[in-house]
Amino acid sequence: xxxxxxxxxxxxxxxxxxxxxxxxxxxxxxxxxxxxxxxxxxxxxxxxxxxxxxxxxxxxxxxxxxxxxxxxxxxxxxxxxxxxxxxxxxxxxxxxxxxxxxxxxxxxxxxxxxxxxxxxxxxxxxxxxxxxxxxxxxxxxxxxxxxxxxxxxxxxxxxxxxxxxxxxxxxxxxxxxxxxxxxxxxxxxxxxxxxxxxxxxxxxxxxxxxxxxxxxxxxxxxxxxxxxxxxxxxxxxxxxxxxxxxxxxxxxxxxxxxxxxxxxxxxxxxxxxxxxxxxxxxxxxxxx
Length: 288
Fold this sequence. Notes:
Organism: Paenibacillus cineris
Distance between the termini: 28 Å
Number of helices: 8
Oligomer: single chain
Protein name: Acetyltransferase
Number of strands: 12
Pfam families: Acetyltransf_1
Strand order of the largest sheet: 1-2-3-4-5-12-6-11-10-9-8-7
InterPro entries: Acyl_CoA_acyltransferase (IPR016181), GNAT_dom (IPR000182)
């Protein structure tokens, strides 16, 4: 097994893109990241590849394990064809011996195996921060009832969007309601300028939001789904996710991909009713 550490994102892209595309939807995060780095159009915050950790483990048959970390985020791994090779994982851990890794996010079996071996070597522990399920949609259920009107988020929404965004981030821990109070408009204006977030209005009143994340060759990520507590159980989240999923398909994407928190039965039920089908489970693990 050969460990290769990359400093050139373009070389890493060339060596790993086709491998990651074998499971495009599952690899939404690493694929989206290497596309961002390869194109070099946006180096805001974590997006500058000069700070990334990029590595592969290969044998005579080719790349067996791909690893990318965009600090401060967790390392993301992909075992080629989802075949977990213990030798490749041990080789990666050897190569990462001088690196600080905060945690891992990847397909469940690989995440658990890597975390156990890594923490054993380091003499540390790990805990699960989120158990996730990755879903894929290729057609929206035509029977879904659509309410309200979807429009792009715009700068006129700056009076409420920062608060919705912080509430969404807080809800990353299911059931959590404590949120940060926005202090600086710039991060939210950046999100608005991306033109990837949408608002659902009912009778002219914003009631829910959702948007796109990474755009891949045939797949696009759907995320940032948030409805204020006082507007829930009215079908708004279902409606906006169904509508922007259909918009993505109409633009030419063949599939929409989203991650759910398995602790949240409501969201998992909603997405399946829309037409999302589970493709695999994923874990976010934190090293302590």
